[in-house]
Every structure is written in C-alpha cells, then in structure tokens.
C-alpha cells in the first residue's frame, strides 16, 4: 500500500503538508474536524489553521512512508519524520477518519 491508496483526502493531506501554504490543508477537513497531536486537541478550521501554522510548521522535516492500511471510514498511515527537532527521527501514526462527503473529520497523530 502507498499513500495514494489511502482515501483521497488523506492522501491529499500529505501532499498539501509538503507545500509552502499550509492554509490549503484546511480544504481536506470538515469545518468541525478534530486534530489531536502531541496530546493537544485542535477543533474546527480556526484551531487547525493555528496548529498548521504553529506546531506543525515549527521544524524543517522530511517524511518517509513506512506503511498504511484502510478500512471503512478509517485510514492509517505510518510515517517517519526526520528533521531539526529533538528526538529526530520519529515514527508517527496518523489515524484519519472521513465523513460521508470524503473529508477528514478527525486526525490523531501518535508516536
């Protein structure tokens, strides 16, 4: 399985996270989506944008696909991040849930 085999909004999330304008990432989330990262919850577009332009952009990183799976409304991607952050590299699990319209309703990122 590759990133492209995840549901489309999850695959697009990773593509957009590689871009320079993180605000575009919001297009794959529902307006009331929840992102949980580093034990913090970000609810709705405004808080998710703050996460994207803050903690999610704090370091320069490269990502490497490790593995993934998809079932029903859930997709899981395991990614290795390496960069200029403490503890680099780190393997992260991204658990996506999508709504009936194919947008991400939740994303939980754990080590």
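^ Assign residues to that structure.
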């Amino acid at each position: 399985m590759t990133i492209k085999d995840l549901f489309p909004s999850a695959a697009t999330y990773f593509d957009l996270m590689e871009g320079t304008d993180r605000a575009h990432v919001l297009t794959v989330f529902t307006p009331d989506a929840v992102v949980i990262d580093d034990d913090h919850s970000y609810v709705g577009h405004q808080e998710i944008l703050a996460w994207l332009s803050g903690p999610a952009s704090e370091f320069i990183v490269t990502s490497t696909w490790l593995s993934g799976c998809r079932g029903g409304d859930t997709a899981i991607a395991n990614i290795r991040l390496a960069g200029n952050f403490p503890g680099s590299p780190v393997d992260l699990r991204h658990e996506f849930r999508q709504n009936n319209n194919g947008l991400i309703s939740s994303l939980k990122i754990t080590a």
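The chain has a mean pLDDT of 95.
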